[in-house]
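User: Teach me something about this protein's shape.
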Amino acid sequence: MLETLLPIVLFTFSTSITPGPNNLMIMSSGLNYGVARSLQHLLGILLGFPAMIVAIGLGLGTLFQQFPLLHEVIRWVGIAYLLYLAWAIAITREIGNAERSKPFTFLQAVAFQWVNPKGWIMAVGALAAFTGAGSAMWADVARIALAFIAVGGPCVIVWMLFGVGLKRFLNEPKQLRRFNIAMGLLLAASVVPMVVD
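Assistant: First, the predicted structure itself:
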């Protein structure tokens, strides 16, 4: 158990701190809406992703093996949704403009985990690397999910706070517009591996 804990922690940290759709979106949310209005989005990531790991680890993965078309549908829906979100971020013009845009709700962020390409790679990679067959499977899956809460959670919080901190540098509408366009383009670029794969 202890011999796998450090590798799980390192895997969780390295995959959670690097840029990806969740981190880019929570950073943009922190910038555009602040901490208080981004909390539901943050909690949706922090709880939704570990819940996805548990669901896949305890049986949903078998469903995708039996019906590969279902996984393919989710993949293409995810790509389309990410491109839509990239466009929505890119056209945001004012910080906290509630009339034009709203931050993700808790349920939207939880649901997003299922169409997030990097999330699938992280979940399947962790489950493949750190679970064994047999009765210990439940414990292995629980350990991975808890690592993504304890180690991955602070990584996501750092991205949100980075976005909040950017407010003082992006106080001009032109600067904010450029930043949001850049974030939209980066989010759109994150789907390239999914399309090419």
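Now, about its shape. The chain has eight helices and no strands. The mean pLDDT is 82. If you'd like, I can walk through any region in more detail.
User: That's plenty for now, thanks!
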